[in-house]
Design brief:
Length: about 325
């Protein structure tokens, strides 16, 4: 930015940018927290990316979706979250309008990709459980890569089109209250439908069906083991409870992070929305990218093995890509 600190102060006064009302210690702690969240998001997703890309055993169709989710979440952590958290701390947009446009395009694009990655994971898990034989024949690594590529291309095209026709509705002058894209009522509802309601409906519906199918399978296993030792029956029950718990956590955390923001978007069409509150809910939305590595990776046994190999630098050994991590 080609302007001095004095010019920034004058501009802030002109735009009535709120003054900092917190002590220096709290201010420093906020910035340390910002750095910690960004670092956790980037490093957590980077571990997944390295694991899936490096180890040959993890080159499966299902893991390509996890890789795509990790890439989108890692980019959110690196490109979107720093600006959003900085805006919340400063309560003031400190950059040019052109940067505002780039920031919004990146944020909307990566968020929609992340949401649809979760939806595709739900579709993949349901298909694999509902008809495993057809899944093995129909779903290959190359086809899954095409699906992932289409997800990214369609999301980018949609968000480019959305922003291109609404450049005049961007707020984001230097030291303004914030950087937002203002849509009319119709487009707001359409965007809400495409980026939240539809993928969430798919996720909730399919995960519910997955739980039902898993419960039927567990019941069938218990029936087969009735004549055998009670230990196997207890293991089956424990596995069923664990599956239900994981699915519940997946859906609950996803909706907890996304639901408040999109509900607020609907209310914003009808009532005047406080930009400060809007920013906080937006950050909650982005925090889903921080939590995703924990939920979608730590429940997999192979991830812990991969992390140990990566941290100990064993991945630099000869033929380390062929190590058994499953």
């Amino acid at each position: 930015m080609n302007f001095t600190a004095a010019n920034q102060t004058d501009s802030c006064l002109q735009y009535t940018c709120p003054e900092r009302s917190v002590s220096t210690v709290i201010y420093v702690l906020l910035y340390v927290s910002l750095a910690a969240v960004v670092l956790l998001t980037v490093c957590g997703n980077l571990l997944i990316i390295i694991s899936v890309c490096h180890f040959k055993q993890l080159h499966t169709p299902a893991n390509m979706l996890i890789l795509s989710l990790a890439v989108s979440d890692c980019l959110i952590g690196a490109l979107v979250m720093p600006t959003s958290l900085l805006q919340m701390i400063e309560s003031c947009w400190m950059f040019r309008r052109a940067f505002c446009a780039c920031y919004l395009l990146t944020a909307y694009f990566l968020t929609s990709v992340s949401i649809y990655n979760v939806a595709l994971i739900a579709v993949d898990r349901y298909f694999a459980l509902f008809n495993p034989f057809l899944y093995t024949k129909a779903v290959s690594l190359s086809r899954m890569c095409i699906v992932v590529l289409c997800d990214w291309v369609v999301s980018l095209s949609y968000n480019l089109t959305l922003q291109y026709f609404h450049l005049n509705s961007l707020s984001g002058a230097v030291c303004s209250r914030g950087c937002f894209l203002v849509l009319n009522e119709v487009l707001s509802l359409v965007d809400l439908l495409l980026t939240f309601i539809f993928p969430c409906a798919v996720i909730i519906t399919l995960y519910t069906l997955v739980f039902v199918i898993a419960k039927k399978h567990a019941t069938a296993i218990r029936d087969l083991n009735r004549t055998q030792t009670s230990k196997k029956v207890s293991i089956s029950k424990k596995s069923e409870r664990k599956a239900a718990k994981v699915l519940g956590i997946l859906v609950f955390v996803f909706l907890t992070c996304l639901f408040p923001y999109f509900v607020y978007c609907v209310l914003g069409v009808m009532i005047k929305v406080e930009e400060e509150t809007f920013t906080k809910l937006l950050i909650l939305l982005y925090l889903n990218s921080t939590i995703n590595p924990v939920i979608y990776a730590l429940f997999y046994p192979w991830f812990k093995k991969c992390v140990k190999l990566i941290v100990s630098l064993q991945i630099f050994n000869t033929d380390s890509a062929l190590i058994n991590v499953l």
